[in-house]
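One-letter codes give the sequence; backbone shape is given numerically. An example follows:

. . .
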Amino acid sequence: MTEFAERATKVSISGIREVFEAAGEDAINLGLGQPDFPTPSHARQAAVDAIQSGDADAYTSNKGTLALREAIAGRYSEDQNLDVDPEDVIATAGGSEALHIAMQAHVDPGDEVIYPDPGFVAYENLTHVAGGEPVPVPLRDDLTMDPAAVEEAITEDTAAFVVNSPANPTGAVQSREDVQEFARIADEHDVLCISDEVYEHIVFEGEHHTPLAFAESDNVAVVSACSKTYSMTGWRLGWVTSSTPRIERMLRVHQYIQACASAPAQYAAEAALSGPQDVVDDMVGQFEERRDVVLDGLEDMGLDVPTPSGAFYVMPEVPEGWVDAVLERDVVVVPGEAFGAHGEGYARISYATDVETLKEALAVMREATEAVR
């Protein structure tokens, strides 16, 4: 009998998914990592037009349509003053596939991948899928990743380290100085920095910075997507950009596991990226308002909450039994340990829902907090 591949036995079912499945049908779900806003109407219409005209019927280039890649490059130029060649972009099936092909193209069996802990659940598991060895690095008290801790963790077996800013699950935004250090580490140690920038436009305080702007070598690969910025999680459209040689290697993986991203989604993404950006500003403004409501409510309960500067998550320290007490009262939050061993004692709360629902959930959390103290 054929046994399972060892790498598959090391991949765990997401703790986030387990919480969802355990929740009641009428529960308030603050575990979802997706905006509750509609996809911009002009992006939807672009997909409809492409479908009706037949333009979306066939495969696109493996890298994606040139118009989409030009739109992606245009955003980097306008938003970050970066010169990105459209030929050095691969459109992918969401940011998840972009992370996957970056790992597959650069990580050999036994290679180490350093990543933040707590951190996005895919980092550890995609490392296992690539046959690599995960190396989690604990965060600072403010839940940012310390470049010194990353540098200390590097060995001769290190293939890559992952930076995520703004971060899931913490909402933390790395400083310019930190990002410059990450670029220096990639240069001096000749290891790949995989920069997950899916939440790059959802920043409340400070600014988003990318190691791509500071690296002197080609040791940076940037992953991003339309998923969070344009509320397009279901469209599954992301991308990766890096140097020409690295893109060529990642393309070899992409062309066999995906061929190309969904054509209708590519047309929608092109319209979202090249069209009016006021929808993004409006969404970010509402997320900031919601964040402040949640922060005030949690702090009023006496919980210690690092202030998130981006994304749409908050990660308070919580008493033992708090998550179970909240779940029992039909409010879905995710235990911090779902994001790594160093997440124990925390909970991730998504505020990607309306203010009134958040206030209702906070009232339940207050009751749960009093019950476990």
